[in-house]
């Protein structure tokens, strides 16, 4: 009769019984070794990527990114660094070194504001996340122990 329709593109199944047990064991060892080599190559590539990232950060080529909310004194509307404007009330993702500079600028604007107004710096500190928590005796306690703006 002949081959079934559409079978000429399919590979023929080979009779594996013609291989001796020793040949099968040898092939199995070769396959296991190839799989092991592939895993080692993947592990080496992953380790190389990690070490490269650490080395780039240590040498200043790459830097951790930080998300920062710009909170300036009322007389300011922006921070200008390297000719880039960071506007009041906006959130930016910047390198950690730039975030440190921006945090200091924000702190100094509030210090200047307290100096020109003649008020204590604590006058401008805003509490964040105030909560009213019921006390056991029926009274309410205002919890302001959260972070305060520096």
Description:
The structure is a single chain. By secondary structure, the chain is an alpha+beta fold. It folds into two domains: 19-58; 65-143. The protein has helices at residues 21-58, 96-117; strands at 65-69, 78-81, 84-87, 91-95, 131-134, 140-143. It has a two-stranded antiparallel ribbon. β5 and β6 (140-143) form a beta hairpin. The longest helix has 38 residues, at 21-58. The protein is rod-shaped, with a radius of gyration of 34 Å. Residues 145-150 have low confidence and may be disordered.
State the main characteristics:
single chain, alpha+beta, two-stranded antiparallel sheet, 2 domains, 2 helices, 6 strands, disordered C terminus, 150 residues
Low-pLDDT stretches: 145-150
Percent of residues in helical segments? 40-55%
Q: How large, in whole angstroms, is the Cα Rg?
A: 34 Å
Q: Write down how many β-strands occur, each being a DSSP E stretch of 2 or more residues.
A: 6
The overall pLDDT average reads 81
Structural class: alpha+beta
Counting H and I runs of at least 4 residues, what is the number of helices? 2
Strand order of the largest sheet: 1-4
- In the residues, how many domains can be counted? 2
Order of helices and strands: HEEEEHEE
Distance between the termini: 90 Å
The shape, in one word, is rod-shaped
Beta-sheet strand percentage? 15-25%
Please render the helix and strand layout as text.
Layout: H1 21-58, E1 65-69, E2 78-81, E3 84-87, E4 91-95, H2 96-117, E5 131-134, E6 140-143
Antiparallel strand pairs: 1-4, 2-3, 5-6
